[in-house]
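explain this.
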Amino acid sequence: MKADSIWGKKMAMVVVDPQRKFSLPVPDWKDRMESAVEAINRFAGIFRSHGAPVIFVGFVGPSHCGYEGDDGDEWLPGLAVEDSDIIVLKEHMNCFKETDLEKILADNGIDSILFAGMLTEFCVITTYFGAGERGISPYLGKDATIPYNQEGNKAAEVICSVVSADVLERFLSGEQPEPVWPFEEGHHRGQPEGMSL
């Protein structure tokens, strides 16, 4: 769902597995990839301009996509990765599992994340919900994820909070009004009506 505001005080960008080895043998792959890389670069540029962390996560090991090139561990063509960016390596679907990602976020005071990368329905979504389990507000960058299924991004936008570059810019520049949670005062965030803790 489209989010008009971001919950949190400090946000980082986490780009999940943007590696050549996850390329798919489908006719529209180039279009899916190039448009997402353009959006990833746009979001990353906004984060860097505000001094906010940009973290690239790379998967160690073979992919399930059948990619046979010897450049599989390289970043996607056109992806802008800067020396100031943080690199995290992982061996599992969830970027938090057996990595130092959670410590890096805590050390930087991060309480919300904008996710980008691939593949939407697998590592991106798994880590999105993993962030929520850790008390970190998760968001997807609009058009900055690459789906396995052609309709995967549409499905993700139904169940996840998605923000545009404009909303991100407003948040990082401190121009976002204080978000208002739609429940009555005294209710825990996300707590259904009538339920007590």
In short: The radius of gyration is 17 Å. The longest strand covers residues 137-146. Helices lie at 29-49, 101-107, 120-133, 152-159, 165-172. The mean pLDDT is 92.
